[in-house]
Amino acid sequence: MDAAMLAGTVSTVLFAAANLPMLLKAVRSRDLRSYSASALVLGNVGNLTYTIYVVSLPFGPIWVLHGFYLVTMALMLVLYAVSARSQRRGARAGAAATTPVSGIPSVRTRPSRRAA
């Protein structure tokens, strides 16, 4: 293995290892509120466009790294869409928890403490 191939392999492993914690946290928590839908969409479009370049290269570490990025970004976009959909459903269900007459959410109050 020449120096360029070794450097490409090591950097591929490092880049993938750097992204795995973020991906695993997103999968486990299903909380993607800190992500931007437009950034995820643009990242996926960029990855798809970059695929044209990667396919023109001989097989090597860049293929593995780019494949990892394709899968990771697509998964993040899908998780974001699922998360956004479930939040919209939750918001609609929360609207049903309002009192039917006034539309104001019910409020719990603590019993007042009176000095005896």
From TrEMBL:
Gene3D superfamilies: 1.20.1280.290. The chain crosses the membrane at residues 6-24, 36-56, 62-82. Keywords: Membrane, Transmembrane, Transmembrane helix. It comes from the Bacteria. Residues 91-116 are annotated as: Disordered. This is PQ-loop repeat-containing protein.
